[in-house]
Design a protein that fits this description.
This protein is an all-alpha fold and 319 residues long. It has one domain: Rhopdopsin 7-helix transmembrane proteins (Up-down Bundle). The chain contains 11 helices and 3 strands, in the order βαααβαααβααααα. It has helices at 21-51, 58-75, 78-84, 94-127, 132-135, 138-163, 181-184, 193-226, 231-259, 265-290, 292-312, and strands at residues 11-14, 91-93, 173-174. The protein has a 3-stranded mixed sheet with strand order 2-1-3. Helix 1 (21-51) runs antiparallel to helix 3 (78-84), helix 2 packs antiparallel against helix 4 (94-127) and helix 2 packs antiparallel against helix 10. One of its GO terms (molecular function) is G protein-coupled receptor activity. It comes from Vicugna pacos. It is a multi-pass membrane protein.
């Protein structure tokens, strides 16, 4: 904890999304519903994949891990943002602010690598179907998930190693609803403009290169699918389209915020809401609506739960 003592700022003030009382009430209700549905939706997918034997395949193993990361990504800042709508003075401790930066970059870095792993899985399944079972073994799938978390951890540590040693001795107002690197380093008491731009843009370049890699992968897959007109190809096209929608929703806000840091704070707020709240909320909907296997398994699980609930309700004879 010695490194924290270099800072004379004990807390940061969060300006939040708006200072309008009416909008704060509206946002409190709206984001509470979004957060609850995000947790329920992703939890349902996770439990469905774990409890359905025919979904124990590499694609759904990676999908369940995506749901886990989405629950984490939605939880690192959203609950505090919701609670802050009911208070006038929104603050966060220095340690809490650093923790938000840590978890944000951990979860986003992990999700980037996991999305690449999911595109690799689809590439092998469609372009090299005869070698799929040998390449995408259980050990490889576990290795891809472990690699995702490892890369995410190394990425966030590299960002924090730079931030923790900055002196924060005066300004402490963060124009957002959570702490993020581009906003926090601007509050340092030394001129780190060019170094800060370099560090932040590194995250943007990683996101941009990863997106281009994913784009190339999905274009290759879609071209391969186009050359095979069949029911299986139609199913593969639907799956890949769902994957790419997720990729697009996740990457474009990250690229905009980190490739061009220190731009319009209002735009950054909207984009931050999108990839920390809306994307984790939409992922379960996209996968259940675009994927027939998941949709069928979810419906079956819900119907079984309904039947089991009916069996547990005692029926007493009328007297």
């Amino acid at each position: 904890m010695e490194m924290f003592n270099h800072s004379r700022v004990s807390e940061f003030v969060l300006l939040g999304l708006t200072d309008s009382p009416e909008l704060q009430i509206f946002f409190f209700v709206m984001f509470s519903i979004f957060y609850l549905m995000t947790m329920l939706g992703n939890c349902l997918i996770l439990l469905t994949v774990l409890s359905t034997s025919h979904l124990h395949s590499p694609m759904y193993f990676l999908l369940s891990n995506l749901s886990l990361i989405d629950m984490c990504l939605s939880s690192f800042a959203t609950p505090k943002m919701i609670m802050d709508f009911s208070v006038q003075h929104k603050t966060i401790s220095f340690e809490g602010c650093i923790s938000q930066i840590f978890f944000l970059h951990l979860f986003t870095g992990t999700e980037i690598v996991l999305l690449i792993s999911m595109s690799f899985d689809r590439y092998i399944a469609i372009c090299k179907p005869l070698h799929y079972s040998s390449i995408m073994s259980h050990r490889v799938c576990v290795g891809l998930v472990v690699t995702s978390w490892t890369v995410g951890f190394l990425h966030t540590v590299s960002q924090l190693a730079f931030t923790l040693y900055l002196p924060f001795c005066g300004p402490n107002v963060v124009d957002s609803f959570f702490c993020d690197l581009p906003l926090v380093i601007q509050l340092a008491c030394i001129d780190i403009y060019f170094l800060g731009i370099f560090m932040i843009s590194t995250s943007g370049v990683i996101a941009l290169v990863s997106f281009l890699l994913l784009l190339t992968s999905y274009i290759t897959v879609l071209v391969t699918i186009k050359d095979h007109s069949s029911i299986g190809s139609s199913k593969a096209f639907s799956t890949c389209t769902a994957h790419f929608i997720v990729v697009l929703m996740f990457f474009w806000p990250c690229i905009f915020i980190y490739v061009w840091p220190c731009t319009n704070f209002l735009v950054d707020k909207v984009l931050s809401v999108f990839y920390t709240i809306f994307t984790p909320f939409l992922n379960p909907l996209i996968y259940t609506l675009r994927n027939q296997e998941v949709k069928t398994a979810v419906k079956k699980k819900l119907s079984n739960q309904h039947l089991n609930l009916g069996k547990t309700i005692p029926i007493y004879p009328m007297q």
